Amino acid sequence: MSDSFFFSFIPYAAAGVAVAGGVRRMVTRPSAPARGSREPWTPAGRAVLAGGVTVALVHLLGLAAPRAMQSFNASPARLFTLEAVSLIGGMLLGWGLLSLTLRRAREGQWVAAGFLGMLLAQVLTGLHIAVALRWGSAWYLHVSVPYLRSLMVFQPDAALMAQTPMVYQLHTLAGFALLALAPFVPARRGAAVALKPANDTPMLATPREETAR
After folding, report:
1. Is residue 70 domain-resident?
2. Element (H, E) at 174
3. Which of 37, 62, 164, 186 has the most other CB atoms within 10 Å of its CB?
4. What is residue 200's three-state secondary structure?
């Protein structure tokens, strides 16, 4: 199939599935159980939180304020610093997700482990892009940001994405796939992840694991 199909149709299909899944979850969501005692975060949980926030902020800031980020990256020192911070954040996120994936697999929580594994694969492709292609925060502003903005105004422009390396195309399409799958994974409220008790229903995107004893 053509690149136009992949990068013009799939994003909207994924968004539609995600919205439908979100609505279904809201309609069928059971009453929230009483909260139990809190458990401290594990090192892997802290890594997921810190790395996830760092990576998300870099992506979102580039999308929301591309000119400001471009001005920031005009200095080689600042560009190197941003790249280093992003890489460290990605490595922390990858290590935390690997730990969570293995733990869920050992506990037989295969749905959670599968989704976490997909997230881990997404992070690993991002790390590969950061190392192999380099200066991603600079060319991200000229490739991904225009493409994502074209999707938001319902005028998808896949021309730039079609010229990117295969690993970057897979990284982008995998992100849309994760968006579509997320509402169908048993997970607690994302905003209350850090507050959930350890004996509650296992969460998929939780940045916290119960203490292993």
Report:
1. yes
2. helix 166-181
3. 62
4. coil
Q: What is the pTM assigned to this prediction?
A: 0.78
What ranges in 37-109 are assigned the alpha helix state H? 43-64, 66-72, 76-106
User: What is the token pair recorded at 168?
Assistant: 């970057």
Segment 19-59, tens digit of pLDDT: 998 888 788 766 555 454 455 677 888 888 899 999 999 99
DSSP code of residue 65: -
Q: Which two tokens stand for residue 91?
A: 């490595």
> What burial letters (b/e) apply to 20-59, b meaning 16+ CB within 10 Å?
ebeeeeeeeeeeeeeeeeebebbebbebbbbbbebbeebb
Residue 146 domain-assigned? yes
pLDDT tens column, 141-167: 989 999 999 999 999 888 888 888 999
Half-sphere exposure of 88 (CA within 13 A, CB side): 8
Question: For residue 38, what are its two tokens?
Answer: 């809190």
The whole domain housing 126 covers 3-9+41-182
Look up tokens 């979100």; give the residue.
22
Tell me the helix, strand and coil percentages in the chain, rounded to 5: 70, 0, 30
Query: Are the beta carbons of 22 and 14 closer than 8 angstroms?
Result: no
